[in-house]
Amino acid sequence: MPVARPEPQEPRVIAHVDMDCFYVQVEQRRNPELRGQPTAVVQYNDWKGGGLIAVSYEARKFGVKRSMRGDEAKMVCPSINLVQVPVARDKADLNVYRSAGSEVVTILSTKGKCERASIDEVYLDLTDAAKEMLLESPPELLELIFEEATKSNILGLPSVIFVLHDLIVVSLQFDMNVTNRASYVQDVSNREDSVRAWLCRADADYQDKLLSCGAIIVAQLRVKVLEETQFTCSAGIAHNKMLAKLVSGMHKPAQQTVVPSSAIQDFLVSLPIKKMKQLGGKLGSSLQDDLGVNTVGDLLSFTEDKLQEYYGVNTGTWLWKIARGISGEEVEDRLLPKSHGCGKTFPGPKALKNNASVKTWLDRLCEELSERIQSDLNQNKRIAQTLTLYARACKKNKSDSIKKFPSKSCPLRYGTVKIQEDAMKLFESGLHDFLGSQNTKWSITSLSVSASKIFDIPIGTSSILRYIKGPNSTVSPANLDCSSLPEDPSLGNKLYIAPNHEEHCEPSLSEKEDYGNNSNLAKQCQIKEEKKVSKKLTEVKIILGPESSSEPNKAEEHKAAQYVDRNKFNTAGSNSASSSTWMFNVEDIDPAVVEELPPEIQREIHGWIRPPKQSSSKTRGSTISSYFQPAKRD
DNA sequence: ACGGCTGGCACT
DNA sequence: TAGTGCCAG
């Protein structure tokens, strides 16, 4: 369920940038002959021409839609070019699009906080950049406004010209005649003049001026993206994420749209409720069917209390706010995905009906997953902690077949073979739960594996080996237990040290309120809290990572292993094998050894042992925060 | 026989 | 936590 976030007081400048039919553009760059042609990207050509996942604007004019079959597309648009998604290991391989997306993110992340929202979308928080521009070169003083910026669409600006313009753009695409062209040019120039005037208004309020700067910055970024990647994109510029996202697709392709505060209400009143993000599904339907709310304007007549009554505290407040254009959600500073997954469906006759075929496919999926987390590790120094298996299954001849195949997860061990083994064990465990006591036939219609709980390997602690080598490490390599070292040859035996992933989370205010109504729940909540406090959050993980260069020194390795309490390591269940991570308590580290370490590492370790802050009188430590905001020195 | 394949988030 | 469900494109 959606949740309202506290609204920042200061006005922000937020942009949502959305690539235009991205996969098509990627293919058009690979094969320029496709440019300007009706084109679609399709995956799996064997059944009814495959499914379309991206459609060029030329093809859309013929009525070609995403989710059409290749065959259907050919029917409505015989001249369409259908490009297949690359296939690897007998499944669609989206890596070309992922890396193309990274190219774009790299460019877009240069002007402010940047959040990768999907493979082809980002949010930007340009507040600081906009403020800076306003101070140093405000639009009203600029002699020449950046051309792309004057092509912006400003919501609420007198729209006669826009309507005209839009109509003419359509006719333009059908090879218009000279007379039309003349009027088009004139209208465009009128339009650009009025946009320029709007962007440069000296009498604009502060918020609008910030937006103007935002629009100019985004225009520059979009041109840069085009120059450096050949990709066009569209964008929305507003004071929050919700509004920016809402309008980024309003004028496509290759255009941007600005939402001044003054235009919000008029814009929202008539907006169909289903167009709002998060309301495209069941919640939106419920609003329509149960409350008769068809537009965002209709929502305005409900009090916050009423909405909370229907949908709970969180969602109720959220609904009340979005109806008024209020959204406090922050742009996260994150350029990389939070998880990696690969999956495949096996519809109808293709369903997998025995362990052997499941294993075949699971092995392929795991191979791809392993490759992806491996390159994430190499390129981004990130480690994934959890492996999860999902499946969809049917039981033969049972009315009970509504039951879902349960997802299962376990600690993720690096190395393709280990991932394959663990995934198969997870599958067997899930299948066992799925079947229960019955001994019926089953079939699998979808399989996927994913790697999640990914965190950065902290800079400065990259290799514990580097720091633990003492002058007199004379232990025999024979003592070293290498049994759980990765087999994958691309992995070496380098040890990484990182804080325990244990999250220290305080229940949110709203949560507390919710619990407050129910003494039982409140008690549970309290118990949870106490557990967290009593458990000393000083555990640290040692993670096996890659050793790119030299052969690891066994003696050093053993020395490192001295600090690993293998007894404390345990696996999550009978189905999971040993992991490449161990838990131990930093307080168990021999202080004498700590002294051998470089000062910065000593400080880090002491930071883990000591509670990071004394500001709160509560005796609550936090591993994650003490690490990432280390050393408030006292 | 389902759009397929990814991804994110909230809730319990 | 692990596991489920919803949502988006």
Fold topology:
Layout: E1 14-19, H1 22-30, E2 39-43, E3 51-55, H2 57-60, H3 70-76, E4 81-84, E5 87-88, E6 91-92, H4 95-108, E7 113-118, E8 121-125, H5 127-136, H6 147-150, E9 153-154, H7 160-172, H8 178-200, H9 206-229, E10 233-238, H10 241-248, E11 256-258, H11 261-269, H12 282-291, H13 296-299, H14 304-323, E12 340-345, H15 355-380, E13 382-395, E14 408-411, H16 416-435, E15 442-456, H17 464-468, E16 494-499, H18 509-516, H19 519-534, E17 539-545, H20 554-561, E18 581-585, H21 591-596, H22 599-609, H23 623-628
Parallel strand pairs: 2-4, 9-11, 10-11
Antiparallel strand pairs: 1-8, 1-10, 2-3, 5-6, 7-8, 12-15, 13-14, 13-15, 16-17, 17-18
The protein binds a DNA duplex (12 and 9 nucleotides) through residues 1-3, 43-44, 47, 51-53, 66-69, 85, 91-92, 94, 117-121, 277-283, 314, 337-345, 347-350, 386, 388, 392, 404, 406-409, 445-446, 448, 450, 572.
